[in-house]
Task: structure prediction
Amino acid sequence: VSFSAESLFGFDRAEVRPEGKAALDGFSRELAGAQFEQIMVEGHTDRLGSDDYNQKLSTERADAVKAYLVNQGRLDGSKITAVGKSEGTPVTKAEDCKGQRATPTLTACLQPDRRVDVEVNATR
Result:
């Protein structure tokens, strides 16, 4: 399951937005009744910003989603791992999103890279 940062987070932010909360609420409802062994939450960023900054931001995003799933979704936090993956696994191609400065066009093009991926191992 992949959640877009556009719905979960504002640009350069790690606080879950109301639209993101609604998406996570739906995700939690889908997990109701499932026996899950492990949930992996991975935070990602685009390539803008320093490596250290992007690592910190991606970790904060993953932690925010984990906290929401535990506190609001009532999922078992001991079975949820949150990690930041920085900008290391983009879904956009460099040739499609040209430039290094945070222009509105480049920011919009890189939006798919700013995401949180959630992998669930569960049975019903």
